């Protein structure tokens, strides 16, 4: 096997035993290193295919230090550690390992972890190659154009967005080691919409004279010396440099990546990507830029060649913003940087058959995103089957998922097709995967690996062609650590994770979402006039934390419309759920739904949020737990939050 596996472990006996296990399983071991220094020197002579990495090592540097280097060299690695404390796990997670095994572990777990790591690495390499090929092609296209930003408006920022995400992009001119504004910047305003900001626009936004803007500066990185500034480092940069301070203040930016390019005329121009999120940029973005560097230099040399009529003060072209919202991501509202990044991710992954794992709190739109991935994929005309793993009756899970033959068990009067078969050719969405019992997880893993199912009581295997999207609001890593979720299944599903941000972290979307839900209410009611929210109520919506996320906002709007007699929503007590205004001549009657919601919350509080089992809320309410769970979902009740 090319490359082989490198073992980095300071206890010789353990390392030797690992070597034996790996060789018996058919792997080649390319070396054993007891320290980071030894590992690095071994890696100079041959690049391992995979590294098994202990965290505590001899010498000053530990495994996590080496992990950063492995990550930047794109070498997959699995941690083997006796220490599974949360703080170590947190630190280790930042290095993006392909697996984590807590010592002592079983031989079988090790081999499964290696198998998964190699599978994931192969997928991600294929994915990166495809992505970079498409970027190279786009950059070649730019190179063919002379006045490109006028002929294909918006194309440059879109192509760059595919390489490195940004909310604001500009190219700065290097003059005596200082960077200054010379060319326009692009502010992202929607999925495919960018506002082109030249001196005139920047001056209008900031109120600074153009002369002042021309004086702003930032220390230039040397050629071949790009830099990333995130979180506190970016704040430091914004304080020490007038230009970074200007961008950070006016566009609320929190991190940046600056990458110098050598132009055909010998000048240095620095591409600057800025993000509204503090931790957007990683070494891997620089690596991507390195790969397409010559194409970027050629394209930008062309772009910045002195052509009259393309000065920075030029007015934005008519139609310089093209919007696709409403088509590809139908029904998903949001323009915050966090949501636009999710759009970028799903547009990239939709075309491929990769499994996607959608993470996020309840009501953040996981199901919506899953549907969107399906409808953007080549499978869009085939079925999209939703399975709610939390509400599958334990004794019927297998039959629900895989179907059964007639007479397979008492009560199986007919042959039944399972969800996986129904989804053949399309997508299966496994919602609340974290709730799936362990026994069913084994079977699911087999389907994911072999793409074959066996009906209960059946004798033959049936091939299924499916794309799997799973979602959960649980921290699956914790579930794995506590033994409630299979590690191999977790890594199989976690090929392409997408994390939905909670609504409180993207409050700028609240007015848009509110408007969208109000419009829907108006359409439902067939109303003549649009509903409107008063400024005071809107400011309450903006300051509320929305523990139930978008679903809670949606429910709020629905209630507000019901509770309001006209079209203007200005009742400030709406958010408190107190609809009986003192002295009002029209005391409100609570709806059945409101009563039901309140009653469920009351009972949940009585039983400490326990739903299932003896003494649980379902038992007290005399309804099946699955019914209670779906009622809670419908009514926007989130366990543990206000309950
Ligand atoms: N960005 C959005 N734009 C418009 N509607 C949205 C958006 N996000 C969520 N919604 C709406 O909010 C509700 C909850 O969304 P969804 O069911 O997709 O969330 P979820 O994360 O899957 O929730 P759960 O974890 O409880 O299953 C749905 O009615 C959905 O239509």
From TrEMBL:
Pfam families linked: AAA_lid_14, Response_reg, Sigma54_activat
Sequence ranges assigned to domain Sigma-54 factor interaction in this UniProt record: 332-562
Residues annotated with 4-aspartylphosphate modification: 54
Record flagged with keyword Lipid metabolism: no
Ranges in a coiled coil: none
Gene3D superfamilies: 1.10.8.60, 3.40.50.2300, Homeodomain-like, P-loop containing nucleotide triphosphate hydrolases
Keywords recorded for this protein, A-Z: ATP-binding, DNA-binding, Nucleotide-binding, Phosphoprotein, Transcription, Transcription regulation
Domain of life: Bacteria
GO BP annotation list: phosphorelay signal transduction system; regulation of DNA-templated transcription
Chain ranges of the Response regulatory domain: 4-118
GO molecular function: ATP binding; DNA binding
Span of the signal peptide: none
Record's keyword annotation contains Repeat: no
Matching InterPro entries: AAA+_ATPase, AAA_lid_NorR, CheY-like_superfamily, Homeodomain-like_sf, P-loop_NTPase, Sig_transdc_resp-reg_receiver, Sigma_54_int, Sigma_54_int_dom_ATP-bd_2
Name used for this protein in its record: Response regulator
Organism: Filimonas zeae
